[in-house]
Amino acid sequence: MVLFDNMGSVTLYTVLVVTALLTYGVAGNPFAAALDFLKNLVLSPKHFIHFVAVLAILFLNKNEMRFERNIDFSANFTHLFKSIEGNFVANLQHTFENSTLTTGLVFIYVVCLQALLVSSIILYTYRSKSKQMYYATCYAIMINYLVAIPFYLFFPINEVWSYDPNVRFLMLEAFPKFETEYRPLSGLNNCFPSLHTSISTTLAILAVKSGNKKWAVLVCTCAALTIFSIFYLGIHWLIDMCGGLVLATFASVVGLKLAKLNLLRLPEQLPSRLFARAREEVK
């Protein structure tokens, strides 16, 4: 079953899933949560700077392949991973392969990770006096990418399906144009560590730490399905997942500590105070 024709359909599904996740997470109007997030971006310099920093890291990751093409480094270590773990991915894929499961896991892999990331950032801002979990999420996401990018540049590992003839790239069954539409965002040899593992696990750890139990259950479930999908779809090696789990733990712990340290000592509502003064002066 074809789910995605192009990145436009991916974007549409992502918006719908974010809306559903926010409805569940805030137990109310998801648009109120989104508006509150935008309000914080406008009124809080601290909130704004952290968000822009995350966008800058995502932009850096998007351009990683351009940097890769400009460096003189041709080594590849895929054979090492294959020699260590053998047919783990092939055996798992052959055991569970099913057309309905394929469709569901392609949706999880392509849509749910980014939807969870956006929803978490908005949720941790909504009706919260302390934005510590929001800042922890921003720091943890930045750490994930900053650690992973050097590995992608200097420790290239090919996706399993492209190296092992016993593994199929099941992604194409639900997203036939994946190689032309989505591939520019993720290189074929950007496998270790698995960012799908590290980001989803990071969000799960932070969800548990947030104290929102129903949100934690949902995010942990999505993280488990995401990790299963990276093997089932024939993308990542088991070692990629292990690297992603280590990175997620490190990023989450450091992100929480940095949020507590309050490194960027800016007032949360500086502009609104200035606006209040301006209104008083006008009067």
UniProtKB/TrEMBL annotation:
Which UniProt keyword terms apply here? Membrane, Transmembrane, Transmembrane helix
Q: Which residue ranges does UniProt annotate as crossing the membrane?
A: 12-34, 41-60, 106-126, 133-155, 215-239, 245-264
Limits of the Inositolphosphotransferase Aur1/Ipt1 domain:
87-252
Tell me the Pfam families matching this sequence.
PAP2_3
Question: Where would one find the signal peptide in this protein?
Answer: none
Which InterPro entries does this entry report, sorted A to Z? Aur1/Ipt1, PAP2/HPO_sf
Q: What is this protein called?
A: Phosphatase PAP2 family protein
Name its species.
Paenibacillus terricola
